[in-house]
Each structure stands twice: as structure tokens, then as C-alpha cells.
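cron nightly-structures :: item 1 of 1
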Amino acid sequence: MSHIYNISHDIDRHASSGKVAIRWLNREGKRSEWTYAKLKELSDATARGLVEAGLGKGDRIMILLPRIPEAYVSYLACLKAGLIVLPGSEMLQPGDILYRLNHARVKAVIAHETLISRVDEAAEAYDGELLRFVCGEGGDGWTPLDDCRGSEETALPETYADDIAFISYTSGTTGGPKGVIHHHSWAIAHQKTATEAWLDIREGDVVWATAGPGWAKWVWSPFVSTLGAGATALVYHGAFDPETWLTILQNEQVNVLCCTPTEYRMMAKTERLDRYDLSHLRSAVSAGEPLNREVIDTFRRYFGVQVRDGYGQTENTLLVGTLKDVEPRPGSMGKPTSGNRIAIIDDEGNELPPGEVGHIAVHRSSPALFKGYYQDPERTKAAFIGDWYLTGDRARKDEDGYLWFEGRADDIIISAGYTIGPFEVEDALVKHPAVKECAVVASPDPDRGSIVKAFVILKEHVTPSDDLVKELQNHVKTVTAPYKYPREIEFVDALPKTASGKIRRVELRELEKKRKAGR
């Protein structure tokens, strides 16, 4: 039988330390500090308030909060109340929210005051009851989160290691987003793999992991890894700017940095890097896509720090990486992490010898592997070949066990660390009255790794123009999360298709690679 365990236990154990859990600042210069004791006190009270509001163990709750301390309190409170958390980005639009409400039969939402109109719009089309809690000022039907404080006499449910903690949604190649199931036990495996061996977080560290709430990467690093290790999480609520990032790293004396390759690339391009003193920075890691050799060299030359690559997914944890005790090989993804059985396999599930390109696969026995896609046995089954889960990425392994990335095996687009499914963008585009048909693919980009490129067939009598490109881009931003919009649109008369009529996106991807390589 599974043992009693809750992710929040690993964070609560630091409550008596007197240490600062969160150091928060924003672009206006405001700042505050929250201790582990304060996090525990507030999350305990909020958990009891959620139970008193009628929520029970196993109910699904969606959290839509930006980079603020209340996000940490809310996640902890929901986990303590035995609720299943659906992380949600503040960029989600009403249609995205409604999809998740329906798919997971969500019972409650915690949202920031700036997002309540989107939730209300989605709720109007939702046929289930929905409790609504707001961080800030709310309207009719919204309970302020500050008022959701329960009595100490209210009991919280026991949770077990194999109870579901999260359903994180990630884009698929077809259909709507997939709900990735992770149990509370995922955090145990993740902390052994990522917190210690990769991030190298030590007691007393100031850790800046730049991912925002609503993403699996936020659960990975800013939440579970940083707070589980008893470090101080630096939280900056402001838009990315390379000079701002470098100034914060210097002034806040950050010891551990975790951000995307795009952020590293933009920082590396900043003029006069010798202006910045990053001597406190001991560990720097990058995840989301391969990092350029020149960026790694720049950080080593100016700041004396080795930026180490890491590879993982919403469905698992850190699978491959240049760990703190692994000799770096620039251009390589690193080596498979301990505790996870990783292999390069062919289409039949056979392990391939060094030098041959195949699928990056994870064995079912890996403790941090997801437990399936929520309410979707067909997609779960399709993700496996025998006992191997297919990541969708291809690589080769060298004689020394290092993995070298070769590209996606499917149509998923990875842009600036965001995972984007072509279906969602295509679905948004064809809702525009000018669009007859379209295909969306990844197009190489020096800063973002890839961008979303749309090939569009217009309806008869519609004339292509620059204004129409902008109109279509803005249309996509309103239908789905803005980060998915096509940064390039090309109007075409036809799309390459198979004999059965399916669009050959692979042909369009290869066309883009050749075009960009020839520039």
C-alpha cells in the first residue's frame, strides 16, 4: 500500500528554520519577503478554508495566478486540501479555460483579479458548478482569497504518494491539449534527479528560476525544487528584458539560475557584459531546447560559470542533462539522469547502438514518469511502444553515453521554451472568415530556436496583404494563448498532402529549414 505523503510536507519542514522562502520584486520597484513560517501558516489556513467551502479530496481546481507569492500559497493550500491542481498560465484565453473546465470537470478556480472576466466568460458556457476565489478585487460570485481562511479545528484529508497531485496540460499534435497526470510521488523522484544533481541547490542559496506559474517548469524548479531544498526563491514580476535580468542577477546576488535558452541568448547579446558582477552565480542551467555553443562560451568567459543543458518534459522530469559532476560536451544534451532508464530506440522499440539516430524513450519503470493522460486512454496508449514512452524527440548516443539532439519526430513546435501544438493554431486560424485552409510548422529562428510559421490558403476573392497578416496574428492571440500566434504567415495556393489528403507538415518544415539555412 502507498505511504502517506504530500508534496507540501517537503516544504513545511523548513517552517521552523526562520529562513526566507520567497523574495519578491516587481518592475515598479516594490519588494517583499515571505518566510517559510508565513507560507505554512497561510497555506494551512487557506487549505482549511477550501475544505469548509465544500471542496473534497480529489476535486479538481484550476489556478490562474502570475508571479506573485500568493501563487505559492495557493498551490500549497490546494495540495494540503487533497485537491488536484490544474496549473494555468495567465495567458490562457476563455476558450482555453473552458476546454480545461470541461475536460477535467473542474470544481473551483483561483484566479488573479485581472483574469476574472476570462473565467466568467468560460464559466457561462460550462455546465458544472464552479467555486471562484480571487486574488485581489473580485466581482459577483467571487470570494476573495484573503477571506478563505478556515478554522484550526477543520481537519485536512490524508494524502498518499500515489494520489494525483497535478493535471498539467500540454499541447498535442492533434486535438486539444493533453492532461498529464502526476502523483504526489513524482516530487520525490524529481528532487533526487533535478534539485540535487542538476540545479545543485544548496541550503542558503538564492535561486532564480524564471518560469511563470501555470507551467510544468514552474512546478519543477521555482516551486518543488527551490522550496523543497529550503532555499530562497527569487520571484520577479515583470516582462523579460536582458539588461534587467543581468541587473537582478547582480543586485540580488543570485546563486542558482534556471531559465530558457532564449533568455540566455538575449543576455549573451547584451553590450558590455563586463559591467555586470555575477560572482555569486555558482550554478546556471538551461532547459526547453538545445543551447548554442557561443552562448555557453560567453557566460564562461565573462562570468566564469558553465551553463549546463537539461532536457525533460511535462510528462516526466529531468531525463538528460549536463549534471554538476558530468564533464560538459558543448552541443550535447548531456547524459541520462540516475533513476531514469533512458534509451534511443527504433520504431519497433529496439534499443539502438551508439551513433544511430532514433527516438528518445523513457522506460515505464522510471519513477517520475507520468501516470497517463487524464480521461484519454487512447492518447496514453499511443505514447508508448511496449514498455517505452516516446518523448517525440530524436537523438543519437555516442560511445561515452552522451546524447546529441537531432530534432522532433512529430509536429510539435518548441519556441522560446513554449510547447505549441500545430492543431491549436490551425484551429484558431480557420475560425477567421478569410481563411480556407492552413498548415502550421516550426521555422528555425536564431533567438527563439523556432517560431510558429503558418502557410495559409485564403478564400476566393480575399486579397493577401500585410494588413491581413497582422489581422490574422491578432485573431489567433484572441482565440488562444498569445504565445502561440504565428510570427510568420505565408499565403499559398496549395499545401502538400498525402494520397489520403493529410497535410504533409514534414515537407513544409524541411522547406523552412532549407530557406533559413540559405540566408
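cron nightly-structures :: done
Residues 335 and 468 are 46 Å apart (CA to CA).
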